[in-house]
Amino acid sequence: MKTPAFIATFSKAQASAFSGGIVDYLVMLFLTEVLHFHYTISIAIGGVIGAFVNFSLNKNWTFRSRDIPYTHSANIQSFRFVLVVINSIVMKDLGTYIITNQLQLDYKISRIIVDLFVSLAFNFTLQKYWVFKKQCNEIQ
Questions:
Q1: How does DSSP classify residue 132?
Q2: 4-29 and 39-57 are packed helices; what angle lies between their axes, rounded to 10 degrees?
């Protein structure tokens, strides 16, 4: 059974991910539909912009690690976040491409399907237990 603190953190993480995801998705739509970029390029660019939104919300609200000074620990946290984002963007890009082409779905629908999986199974887990992991002497 999950604790109330875990459920609260999970809920905040999903709200943060959703906010970053909305920005990401809107950028993708704009770049693809208005500027006529290929959707895989738009996903990558939108992913970077959405990641900035997600990181800011997670650092300052979800995992409350804003008190980590800009030191070695903050650099490690930033580096870890970048690794998660890069892998997340690759999975979203590749997954969307594969589903769009194999199942002949619209890229917008494929993207939502892939986003749900990547956000829940990959991003939350790594952000909670690796990127924004609190030190042993901190209270959860």
A1: S
A2: 140
Tokens 């870890």 belong to: 80
- What token pair was written down for 95? 């997954």
Q: Which helix (H) or strand (E) holds 136?
A: none
Burial class (CB in 10 A: 0-12, 13-18, 19+), 99: middle
Q: What tokens appear for 98 in the block?
A: 């594969």
Structure pTM? 0.78
- Helix, coil or strand: residue 122: helix
CA–CA dist 31, 12 (Å, integer): 29
pLDDT on residue 90: 96
Let me know: does 72 contact 38? Beta carbons within 8 Å.
no
Nearest CA to 130 out of 76, 87, 92, 89 is that of: 76
Q: Record the tokens describing residue 120, joined without a space.
A: 């829940």
